[in-house]
Design brief:
The protein is an alpha/beta fold. It has two domains: about 190 residues, Rossmann fold (3-Layer(aba) Sandwich); about 140 residues, Aminopeptidase (3-Layer(aba) Sandwich), CATH 3.40.630. Helices cover about 40% and strands about 20% of the residues. The chain is built from 13 helices and 13 strands. It is elongated and about 65 Å long. It binds iron/sulfur cluster (SF4).
Length: about 350
């Protein structure tokens, strides 16, 4: 299989190319990013990609087009939705068309590695272009490799850009850099301050794979899932964290599962979801329990689960046929703590 890989910049391509090679997928790299501003930035990114592809022996095709006016004309009336309504669209359309005309088996994009892009939106546009040009969109969630790729790019000395690309993303950088958030134009505020929202999840079973990352037993998940409520933290149309709440009695709840997608971890999203739920549940309930491994006790104590309740000896050994690990720890006992929801 040979794909045409739309490439936004060399650093983002590092992990994507490595991953595709691991999957034995051949590729040509395709540069088409007419919106990058200013021209010197455009040139720096393009030339870095030229050098990098030469260095790793990958064929690269460069569409030389610097389209500031065309880009501005098309996005100026709806800056907030410019990425999905215009930028992704023109780049992926050109890629799909080129791929079809030149006999590739599929097309894809390195934009799929960025945790800062609207991932679901990108996927949707890719699929739309696939239909329009009758060529498959090769979808892969490259985001788990984002940090690794960026670290490698830095290590080999690639030019690392400071903003997404267009003049408006550069403007946001200016405001952030100067900490003049209150001076944001209104539409920029909306872009910058996209807030995750808590949603009740109806189609609980669609999220089994993510829940399994926090609780390795599918049987155990299926048991508590049917009697629990599941809440998700939604960011840019994507559920990034989940919490499963089981109702024990009229005063007590139990947090059965709390998990965040890999690429969003260590950013406080699970904490945020839990805080929101505790705030809501305190109207009706007194106490929330959580059963956890030793490794996670400090996290839960920090979130107010500071009362030790009980230990179920060898819980993890009895539950599974194989060794369950949490980092370096081989899980044995389940330790219960609780949080007083009414406590200020
Ligand atoms: S922020 Fe990035 S993806 Fe969005 S329009 Fe600008 S360059 Fe395109």
């Amino acid at each position: 299989m040979k794909i045409l890989l739309h490439t936004c910049c060399a650093p983002c391509s590092v992990y994507c190319i490595q991953r595709l090679r691991e999957m034995n997928i051949e590729m040509d790299v395709y540069w088409y990013n007419p919106n990058i501003h200013p021209y010197m930035e455009y040139k720096a990114r393009r030339d870095t990609l030229k050098e990098y592809t030469k260095m790793i022996n990958v064929n690269a095709i460069f569409e030389e087009e610097y389209g500031l006016r065309e880009f501005c004309k098309n996005v100026v009336n709806d800056l907030e939705n410019r990425c999905i309504n215009y930028c992704y669209r023109v780049r992926l359309e050109k890629t799909a068309k080129y791929a079809k005309e030149h006999g590739y088996d599929a097309f894809s994009t390195t934009l799929l590695i960025s945790p800062y892009q609207n991932h679901e939106g990108l996927k949707k546009v890719g699929e739309e272009m696939a239909q329009k040009y009758n060529i498959p969109f090769f979808y892969e969630d490259f985001r788990p490799g984002f940090r690794e790729g960026q670290a490698k790019a830095r290590e080999i000395g690639l030019y690392m850009q400071k903003y997404c690309g267009c003049v408006f993303s550069e403007e946001i950088r200016y405001y952030c850099h100067n900490q003049a958030k209150r001076d944001y134009p209104m539409d920029l505020k909306a872009i910058k301050e996209e807030k995750p929202q808590v949603k009740r999840i109806e189609n609980k079973e669609d999220y089994i794979d993510l829940l399994l990352e926090a609780d390795p037993s599918k049987t155990s998940i299926m048991k508590y899932l049917q009697d629990s409520d599941v809440y998700g933290l939604k960011l840019n149309d994507e559920i990034i964290s989940l919490a499963v709440i089981l109702y024990i009695d009229k005063n007590t709840l139990e947090l059965k599962n709390l998990v965040t997608k890999k690429e969003y971890r260590k950013k406080g999203y699970a904490k945020r979801l839990l805080k929101h739920l505790c705030g809501n549940y305190k109207q009706k309930y007194d106490k929330m329990l959580v059963g956890t491994t030793e490794n996670n006790i400090p996290f839960y104590v920090k979130q107010g689960f500071d009362k030790y309740e009980k230990t179920i000896k060898n819980y993890f050994i009895d539950m599974a046929n194989e060794e369950i690990r949490d980092g370096d720890l081989i899980c044995t006992d389940m330790i219960y703590y609780s949080k007083d929801l009414k406590k200020k």
